[in-house]
Queue: 4 jobs
Job 1
Amino acid sequence: MGRAGDTNLLTHFLYFQLGSTYERIQNYDDAEKYFRKCLALSPDFGAGLNYLGYMWADRGVHLPEAREMIEKAVKLEPKNAAFLDSLGWVLFKLEKPRDALPYMLQALENSREPDSTLYDHLGDIYSSLHEPAKAREAWQKAVTLEPNEKIQKTLEATTTSQSAPRQP
C-alpha cells in the first residue's frame, strides 16, 4: 500500500488515467492539466500525445499543437488506427480535408474492427471534398455500426436536399 508522499506511484500512466477520467466528464481544464503532467513524465507516450491532441482537435482548440502531438504519436506507432484517425481529424479541423483523407483511409485499413467514429469522420471529410455520394456511404456505414441521431439527421438532410457539407 502506498504512503503519503510516496512519489513512485505518481506515474505517467496514473496522470493519463486521471486526464482521461476528467475528459469523459467534460472537465477539459483538469483533463489537460493531467495529460500535460503525464507527458512531462513520459514525452513519448503515444496514447497521451494522441488523447490530448484528439481532445483538442475534437473541440477545435489548440489545433497546431494538437497536430504536432498527434503527428508525434503517429511516428511512434504508424499503424495505430486511433492515432491515424486523430491525425485525419485534426487536419479536417484545420480545414485540410484533402490532407486528412489518406490518414482516415489508413485508419480504416488498420482498424481491427469496423468503427462508427472512423466512418463518421470519413463522411465529414468526403462531404468537405464535395463528394456527397461517398459521404453518405460512409455515414450510412457509421449508423449501421452504431445508431447515432446526429449522423442519421445529417444523412437524411443530405439525401433529401444535397445540402452543404457539415462544418468542422
Note: Residues 35 and 52 are 6 Å apart (CA to CA).
Job 2
Amino acid sequence: MELVSVVRPSGVRSSHAAVSAARSLEVAGQLRSAIMEGDDARIARLLSDLLRVRGLTKGQRVRLQSRALLNLVHSLRSAALNDELTGLLNRRGFMQTATRLLDVALRDWQVAQLVYFKLDVELDEAAEVGQSCARNVLLRRMGNFLRDLFPSYGVYEAIGRLGASEFAALTPLIEHASRAAIMLRARNPESGREAPALPVRVGIARFDPLVPAAIDELLESAARAAEEVREPVTPIASAGSAPRSDLTLA
C-alpha cells in the first residue's frame, strides 16, 4: 500500500505536466493567430483562460502561463525572421544570420561565398487567383531548390528570401557555390520528376577575410553579377496552363 501511495501522486503530477505542456502549445498558437489578426477580444479571452485552467494547482497554472507566453515569444520571433510562404529566412532573418556567419568566417580566417538568385518572371502581387497560385507554387519550388542546394543551412549556411523574387545563400563551401552547377541543377530542379526548369539568374560574390566586406556589400556585388547575364523577363503562367518550354536560363 505504501508503494501505491508513493507512485500515484507521481503519476498524477506527470499527467498534469503533460496537460500543461499540451495546453501551453495550444494557447501559444491561438495567441499568435489572435495577435496577427489584431483580435483584441480573443487575446484577452485567451489570457483570461490561462488564469483559470481547471484541475491544476496555482503553481501549475503559473507554470502553464509562463510556458505559453514563452512559446508565444518563440513563435513570434520565428515569424519575424522567416518567410511564411517558402519557410526560408526573410530578409531580416537572412541579414542577421549571414552577418553572424561572416563574423565566424573572419574569426576563423575562412572564405565564404554569397550566392544571389533572381527569378526571371513577373511576380504580380495583385495577380488573379490562377496566376497567384502559380506564383506561390513557383516560390515554394524555389525554397525547396535552395534547401537541396545548401543542405547545411541552419548550421554552416544561411538561405533566405529577400524580396518578391530575390533569394540568397551564404556558404563557406566552395562546391556549393559553382554557378555552372547551380544553373545545371535549375534545369532539372526536382530530380526524378517531370517539372519545368526554374527561370533563375545567379550572381556570386566572394567574402575574403583579407579584405572583409559586410553582407549588404556582398549582396550588391552578387546582384550586379546576376544583372550582367540578364535575360528577358518571362510572364508567369496561370494555373492549369501548359508550362513554358522556352524559358531561357542564364
Note: The chain has seven helices and six strands.
Job 3
Amino acid sequence: MPPVSGGTTGGKKVLGRKRFILTDSLGLIWALWVTSADQQDRDGGRWLLSQVRNLLPRLREVIADSGFSKKFVDWVPRVCGWAVTTTATAAKGFKVHPRRWVVERTFAWLVSYRRLVKDYECHTQTSEAMIRVAMIHLMLRRLPPLPWFSDAL
C-alpha cells in the first residue's frame, strides 16, 4: 500500500493528519480514526460514529467541538439516536468548556510519547497503532501493583 498523503487543512494550510477519537468521561479512547488533514470534521465524525453506533448501546450523548457543522449535529440524533452538545467558541480570554477538556487531556497524554509528537508515520494505520500502544501503556501504568508480584521480588 503506498503512503497516504498528509493533505492540508482548508484555511490553515497545515500539512499532516487529523485524529478523530471517541473517549469516555475518563479520557480513555473507545474509537479512533486517523486520516489526512484535508478530511472535514463532520465527515470524519460521521464515519467514526457510524463504526461504533451498534457497539456502544449505553452511549447517550456526544460532545463535539464547535468545528463540527450543523450537518453533523443533525445527523447524529437521526442516525445514531444520541444527543449532541457542541462547545461554543469562547468570548474574549480563556474559558474552560465543560467536559471538552477530557478529550484535550487525552491528546495531551498522547503527545507525551515521542512517536506521536510529530507525524512521523507514512501510513495512517501505523499512526493508529502507535496511538493504541500509547493508550495501552497509559492504562497499564494506572493499574495498582499486584501484591503477589511485589512479594516475589
Note: DSSP finds six helices and four strands in the chain.
Job 4
Amino acid sequence: MAAQRLIVLAGLPGSGKSTLAEGLSRALSMPVFSIDPIEAAMWRSGLARDQTGVAAYNVAIALADENLRLGLSVIVDAVNPVEAPRAAWRSLADAYRVDLKIIECVCADETVHRHRIEARIRNIPDMPEINWNDVQRRRMEYEARTDARLTLDTSVGMPETMLAEALNYLR
C-alpha cells in the first residue's frame, strides 16, 4: 500500500493545475478538493462573492483534514497564491505525519497562457470564467514559492507528459 499523501497543486488560473489534478485523481484513485467548485457552491447558497475566497480554502482544508484522519490520501487543486494557505497545507501534513507533495504548474509562454484563458470553458455552475486581466491581477498577488516542489511548465508539453512527470515525482 502506498504511503498516505497530501498532494497540493498550485499555480495561476489557466496554468494546467486542474487538468493535472484530474489526471492524478484518476491515476491514483484519490479525491480532488478544488477551490473553484467549492466557492461556486457557496455562491449558489447565497454567500456574498467577496466573502468566500478564504472560506473556500477553509472548506478544502476541512475536507482534506477529514480524509487524512480516515487514512486516505487527497489532492488539492488551488491557486495557493500566498503563504497563509501554503502554511495550512504544511500544518495539516505535519498533524497527520503524511507526505506533502507540492506541484506548481506554470505556463511560461504568455501567449499560450492567454489563449487558454480566453478559450476555456470549465462548466462549473455559477462560476464565471475569468479573463486575462484577472490572471494578470492574480499574478501580481502571487508570492514566490520557496518550498520543496515539482514545477511543471505546462506550456511546453502535452497533458499526458505532465501527468507522467507528476506521477514520477510522486513515486
Note: The first strand starts at residue 5 and ends at 10.
